[in-house]
Automatic annotation (TrEMBL):
Biased composition (Polar residues): 426-438, 459-468
Recorded name of the encoding gene: efl1
A GO cellular-component term linked to this record: cytosol
Family matches, as SMART domains: EFG_C
Organism whose genome encodes this protein: Chanos chanos (Milkfish)
Basic and acidic residues: bias regions: 939-950
Protein name in the entry: Elongation factor-like 1
Segments of skewed composition (Low complexity): 471-484, 957-972
């Protein structure tokens, strides 16, 4: 196969209608990279013998070693069919869950996708995820069912069984697509009109009719995969063959004289060939006949495998080879590995590249076919609606749709990720072969040098004189000599310099070797990008409406313009064609193509939009499916190398779409990654690439949550708790009360009352566990709660914040749901009494206002049509409201067990009394009258955002200094601050005392209830054959995993096990499973939820049965306590540990009796 030249690709880049941008998506190990190899080989980039073995697009060393892809990489291919020539921009993506963010970056740049499914494993979890991702980005998929050879060789299915099996796989894939489609249609319908509902839900029958009628309105036929639609290819990438039924229809229409369109419709499905009548009939199954697909397609392949691989029947093979009309070399025929012969035959008979590429060109859209719906989705960030964008921005939609290639079209480019390349890999630094001219130039130089040297040796004077003539620098005798020698030296120097220049040019500047270069992975959506062009770089938070206001009309990139937030101006220095491991330099790239842009590292962190028009909005952010959860602290082996590590982490952050790097309060440098494999890759990258130093990483930092639960009804030995337990509890409480700090009382029901040190305020707080659904709701809606909080903050400052209608509806919905879950006497009117959420004002814990007679603005005030007047304005309590909230925020940020955040706890403030000295109170009220509405925002309100993040000490220290400055804006508020905040005594400012008291009260109320630790859980799906099933279970149970269900894949002996596993126990899990099952099973771990660990970390036996069962010491392993202690140890907190208790002297009895 000939190598496609760069010029050809450049020419094809201009034919937008003949470009296909697509990515290969699948579950891990379903054969994406192997398939990509076959396609790459069809362009002569790699040899077709190596296709499938080389895995060309896995260019990293660790990808080759581990055998999995870790990043998405692109390559441009040329495909010719008949008259038409196409340019295929192919992106291979990883299938491992840890790298699913790389899939998102790939999907964004494409118009279509090849979804690969393993014929044995069928639809797997990641297959569903990638189908969903393709769906969310509105790109069209086609299907490749790969590894059909496994059905023949491993599962030993007959062709008929294989047909049924393939049908099932198609059904599974279509079920996933169908679910996505119906959910979308139903969502749209629900949005449309509520009144329709009333009329359509009359009877059950009608409902069904209506529902499907809604679906029928939208054409969905192109969504489903079906071989007769031409969007399915059956393949074995490793053996190099693949076909769609179009190919067989063509073959048989010639052979049998049946029209190919008839064959196309009947080759897949319940049809059979009636040989007598020479007709194709329906009802193969009911009549027990072989379906056409089996008879005409599968049987051929099955017999080929049988003759070549299983029986190795030479005669038959030769016959088949001649009948298929393919050429096989004698060497292949004699080869000891039958697969070589098989590949040689198949790659000529049914080359997989032809089947896949012709399907892609036919069925996937070109960049010109981009739909208006997709454009609107790309252009509308967040909850903004497309029609709320400025007019100029809306007009850009046409540019997208036109995908124009002329110079007048605005340039719009989206960068989905930044990837780093070695400076050596850049085309400008690459060692290129010398041209003929350069070689002769070098030869000439060398010859001159040689001649000069010889001449100089023989007769220095002579040469000198000659040189003088040459250079014409001297005229007289004595001076001639010296000058002559000099100039002779000079001329040799210049020669050397010239020679050096030539050699430097070809090897590249060495001093730049260490430098990391970033290339932006991008696509042009409109216009032509030219090398050296200037453009705006728009960050994800850029707002065109704001910018258009501040920029002069029709301003262009070349002019000076006022600085606009999230916008920068840059020059596009280098444009590259992405060719897998190589980059090729380009002068310009027309719209519709995927490209690499060099020199953008100072402008773009991870993703950005580049445009020549300031009206262009930033594209919607990428949908990331994985949540980064695994954290480790890293440090350099040699402390002096810290700056290198910091720089390296910065580079790593830029080069990976998903990783997070942060510096914790403790000063640790922390990496947050999506999973173990991802973590390993990040560490390797840091060591070898970005920091180039030795680093050590801590054990993974596992996050926990702390919570309280309802008192358990049974004890640890499952006996119902009787009175005896109660006595013990009261006894315990009394004991603990003795330990309580001064001024605190705890009553038996768990109500904690605490007074500030200056005795001026008293708060009573009770901790109540929130129902599980409520916690989940709060967690899922953190973003909404943050919006509500912002609204309240603005309201307090007297400003208004406009929230769009959709968000308001969502907030109302959240409120309704909370109300429905918080039912019963205990929660009466609780939702309206919510005071705050925490930690960070949006977490899954609630502060409840149960103070009698205290009215304050509700957290739901954004829902009220008319803005509520500030309730309780002017009361002393209201002035200190914020201190209570801050105390609550601090208490929920770090719990008493091991300083981890709380979750699912409601703190109900039941009493709050203040007894301020009368003279101060008077002062406050007098000030109050003269203070304007605005200035009543209370002292510490302004900086409450920081409160949540600050630690206790910082806060107390900080409040002294911050307080006066925070209200120095107006003299009125200053006076008021003096009155309220100035309640200073020997215990410090009063608001600070109140914060501390509230925090302590919450912590103690928490401790008065049965406390539990919550662990982060992974769901994991493992596929294993029956013989290794037992070992998989053993590993799971050793690591505290819990099996949710287990089912057998139909038609195979593979079991699918679904289980949950604590993140804390997951490290090394995948490795252990693989080791124990000899690589036959490999799990995929995805973060799913938080779960309460049922054992009490502070449990001691209290009932008689427990004493009997566990003994007095009860020193069996307490998992929860183990976790608590490990976290405390890591944080440097006090850990109560008994190393040896009641040690007994050991004696060897046999000797000295
Ligand atoms: N029997 C058989 N094995 C195949 C076929 N295609 C790929 N494989 C094997 O499947 C394994 C995984 O192939 P890859 O191409 O690396 O899979 P992938 O989908 O790129 O994997 P990730 O990128 O890690 O998600 C390799 O060992 C291949 O040799 C096939 O058609 N038949
Ligand atoms: Mg791969």
């Amino acid at each position: 196969m000939v190598h496609t030249s760069l010029d050809k690709i450049i020419a094809l880049q201009r034919k937008t209608s003949h470009i296909r941008n697509l990515c290969i998506l699948a579950h891990v190990d379903h054969g994406k990279t192997t398939l990509a190899d076959c396609l790459v080989a069809s362009n002569g980039i790699i040899s077709s013998r190596l296709a499938g073995k080389l895995r060309y697009l896995d260019s990293r060393e660790d990808e080759q070693i581990r055998g999995i892809t870790m990043k998405s990489s692109a390559i441009s291919l040329h495909y010719a069919t008949g008259e038409e020539e196409y340019l295929i921009n192919l992106i291979d993506s990883p299938g491992h869950v840890d790298f699913s963010s790389e899939v998102s970056t790939a999907v964004r740049l494409c118009d279509g996708a090849i979804v690969v499914v393993d014929a044995v494993e069928g639809v797997c979890p990641q297959t569903q995820v990638v189908l969903r991702q393709a769906w969310l980005e509105n790109i069209r998929p086609v299907l490749v069912i790969n590894k059909i050879d496994r059905l023949i060789i491993e599962l030993k299915l007959t062709s008929q069984e294989a047909y049924t099996h393939l049908q099932k796989i198609l059904e599974q894939v279509n079920a996933v697509t169908g679910a996505l489609f119906t959910s979308k249609v139903l969502e749209e319908r629900a949005e449309k009109a509520a009144e329709e509902e009333g009329s359509s839900v009359n009877s059950d029958g009608e409902q069904v009719y209506d529902w499907s009628a809604g679906l029928e309105e939208t054409d969905d036929s192109h969504l489903y995969f079906s071989p007769d639609q031409g969007n399915v290819v059956f393949a074995s990438a490793i053996d190099g063959w693949g076909f769609s039924i179009h190919q067989f229809a063509q073959i048989y229409s010639q052979k049998m004289g049946i029209r190919s369109d008839v064959l196309l419709k009947t080759l897949w499905g319940d049809f059979y060939l009636n040989a007598k009548a020479k007709k194709i009939m329906k009802g193969a199954q009911s009549k027990g006949k072989k379906p056409l697909f089996v008879q005409l397609v599968l049987d051929n392949i099955w017999s080929l495998y049988e003759n070549v691989v299983t029986r190795r029947d030479k005669e038959k093979v030769e016959k088949m080879v001649t009948s298929l009309g393919v050429k096989v070399t004698a060497r292949d025929l004699r080869h000891s590995d039958p697969k070589v012969l098989l590949s040689a035959i198949c790659s000529q008979w049914l080359p997989v590249s032809r089947a896949v590429l012709s399907m892609v060109c036919e069925k996937l859209p070109s960049p010109l076919d981009i739909s208006a719906e997709r454009v609107e989705k790309l252009m509308s960030v967040g909850s903004r609606r497309f029609d709320s964008l400025p007019d100029q921005t809306q007009q850009l939609k046409n540019a997208f749709l036109k995908c124009g290639n002329d110079n007048s079209a605005p340039v719009i480019v989206f960068v989905s990720k930044m990837f780093s390349v070695d400076s050596k890999a850049l085309p400008q630094n690459k060692q290129r072969p010398l041209t003929q001219e350069e070689i002769s130039q070098r030869r000439e130089l060398a010859r001159q040098r040689h001649a000069q040297r010889q001449a100089a040796n023989q007769d220095p004077e002579n040469t000198a004189n000659q040189d003088v003539e040459n250079t014409e620098t001297a005229n007289t005798g004595a001076a001639t000599q010296t000058a002559g020698v000099n100039s002779s030296l000079n001329s040799t120097d210049t020669l050397c310099a010239q020679a050096e220049a030539l050699s430097v040019k070809s090897t590249g500047p060495e001093e730049e070797d260490w430098k990391e270069h970033f290339v932006a992975f991008a696509r042009v959506y409109s216009g032509i990008v030219k090398k050296g062009q200037k453009a705006f770089v728009l960050g994800p938070k850029y707002d065109p409406a704001l910018a258009l206001k501040s920029l002069p009309e029709g301003c262009s990139v070349t002019e000076d313009f006022p600085s606009v937030p999230h916008m920068a101006c840059c020059t596009l220095d280098n444009l590259y064609l992405l060719m897998g491991r190589e980059l090729e330099e380009l002068e310009e790239v027309p719209s519709g193509n995927v490209l690499g842009i060099g020199g953008m590292e100072d402008f773009i962190l991870k993703s950005a939009t580049i445009s020549t028009s300031p009206a262009c909005p930033p594209f919607t952010p990428l949908n990331f499916e994985a949540t980064p959860i695994v954290r480790v602290a890293v440090e350099p082996k040699h402390p002096s190398e810290m700056p290198k590590l910091v720089r390296g982490m910065k580079l790593l952050n830029q080069a990976d779409p998903c990783v997070e790097v942060l510096i914790q309060e403790t000063g640790e440098h922390v990496l947050v990654t999506a999973g173990e494999v991802h973590l390993q890759r990040c560490l390797d990258d840091l060591r070898e690439r970005f920091a180039k130093i030795e680093i050590s990483a801590s054990d993974p930092i596992i996050p926990f949550r702390e919570t309280v639960i309802r008192p358990p009804k049974v004890d640890m030995v499952n006996e119902e708790l009787g009175k005896q337990q109660k006595v013990a509890v009261i006894h315990q409480v009394k004991e603990e009360q003795a330990k309580n700090p001064e001024g605190m009382q705890v009553d038996p029901s768990g109500l904690v009352t605490l007074t500030t040190p200056n005795k001026m305020a008293t708060v009573s707080v009770r901790a109540i566990p929130l129902p599980e659904e409520v916690t989940r709701l709060l967690e899922a809606n953190a973003e909404l709660i943050r919006t509500m909080e912002q609204f309240s903050l603005c309201a307090r400052e007297g400003k208004t914040l406009d929230i769009n209608q959709k968000t308001l509806e969502l907030i109302q919905d959240l409120k309704d749901k909370l109300e429905s879950h918080l039912q019963g006497h205990k929660w009466r009117n609780a939702v309206n009494r919510i005071w705050s959420f925490g930690p960070k004002r949006c977490g899954p814990n609630v502060l409840l206002n149960s103070v009698e007679g205290y009215q304050r603005p509700s957290v739901w005030q954004c829902l009220q049509c008319e803005r509520e007047k500030e309730k309780g304005r002017g009361t002393t309590l209201r002035d200190f409201d914020n201190s209570i909230v801050s105390g609550f925020q601090l208490a929920t940020l770090a719990g008493p067990m091991c300083e981890e955040p709380l979750m699912g706890v409601c703190f109900s403030v039941e009493k709050w009394e203040m007894t301020l000295p009368t003279q101060l109170l008077h002062q406050v009220s007098v000030e109050e009258d003269s203070v304007s509405q605005r200035s009543s925002t209370e002292t510490s309100d302004r900086k409450d955002g920081d409160f949540a993040e600050k630690t206790d000490e910082e806060l107390q220290g900080g409040s002294e200094t911050d307080m006066p400055s925070s209200s120095s804006g107006s003299t009125q508020s200053k006076r008021k601050t003096d009155a309220v905040g100035g309640l200073m005594d020997c215990y410090g400012p009063f608001s600070g005392q109140l914060i501390a008291a509230m925090k302590e009260a919450c912590r103690n109320a928490f401790q008065a209830k049965p406390q539990r630790l919550m662990a982060a859980m992974y769901t994991c799906e493992i596929m294993a054959t029956a013989e290794v099933l037992g070992r998989v279970y053993a590993v799971l149970s050793k690591r505290e995993g819990r099996v949710l269900n287990e089912e057998m894949k139909e038609g195979t002996d593979i079991f699918i096990i679904k289980a949950v596993l604590p993140v804390a126990e997951s490290f090394g899990f995948a490795h252990e499973i693989r080791k124990r099952t000899s690589g036959l099973a490999s799990p995929q771990l995805v973060f799913s939820h938080w779960e309460v660990i049922s054992s009490d970390p502070f449990w001691v036996p209290t009932t008689e049965e427990e004493y009997l069962h566990f003994g007095e010491k009860a020193d069996s392993v307490n998992q929860a306590l183990k976790y608590v202690n490990s976290v405390r140890k890591r944080k440097g907190l006090y850990v109560e540990e008994k190393i040896v208790e009641h040690a007994e002297k050991q004696r060897t009895l046999s000797k000295n009796k």
